[in-house]
Predict the 3D structure of the following.
Amino acid sequence: MKETDISRVLRARLKTLTPAYPILYENKDKPEAMMRPYLVTDVIRVSRRNPGVKGGASGVIARGFFQVTVITDLDQFDTLALTVSGSIALHFPKALRMTDAAGTVAIIDEPNILKGIRDGSDWRTDVQIDYETS
Amino acid sequence: MAGKTFTAQLADFEKLTTQNLKYVAVEAIQDVVSAAQTAQRGITLGATSFVEGKIPEGKTKNLKNSLTSNGTEGETSYTVALGAYDIGDTLTFAWTAPYALRMELGFTGEDSKGRTYNQAGRHFVGANARKFPEFVAARAKEVSK
């Protein structure tokens, strides 16, 4: 499975989150008009390996994690940040398999919701979702 | 082991296994931390691109030097901590620079001085920590007979 397909599948799944929030993708600058709460995505590629003897593209197993950062207002209770990050985690449960013509992306563990941090003008809560392709 | 009693042979084997376990643990942990400490040129030195899994290094190397291993700070402090490691011990590694977490996870938006950032995370810890099972497998092969 190509890396571009992995990103597409993960983003497509995030887009189906309800309620929906604005999404800022990798390498995109935040538009002035984008209001909090919004989500920032990052697909971190950890490894690509092929355990098969023959090799070949179909045997490649790519592993990594999908980081979705929930951006909320400063100086507020973290209820909204935890609600949104919790709904993202529920939207990517362990063993979820997302299959399309390019292959399958499987969620290999329950997503981690990291501690929220104050950074600049935002309160940032990261959700890290480990995946593997097959 | 020839000429030893069966009990003595078992004792040797147990010792060897413990040594091997320790070797695999120490080397695999070191693989993670040394991979995290592998530097890439930082933006302050003119870098226009980056890779995930390597620590950005500026003029001062503050981030890399902020690694604190079991309470001792230093770029290579992990080697000392691992030298004293034994199976069952707990090791802590922390990058204590004030901006370490935002370099790891990324940061966007405006800071207190009005500067706007759209900076992706370098994930020099998270990406390498997730390779731990692969490092263990590789080191275990070294001691498999």
User: Anything to note?
Assistant: Helices of chain B lie at 6-36, 62-65, 77-83, 100-105, 126-129, 132-143.
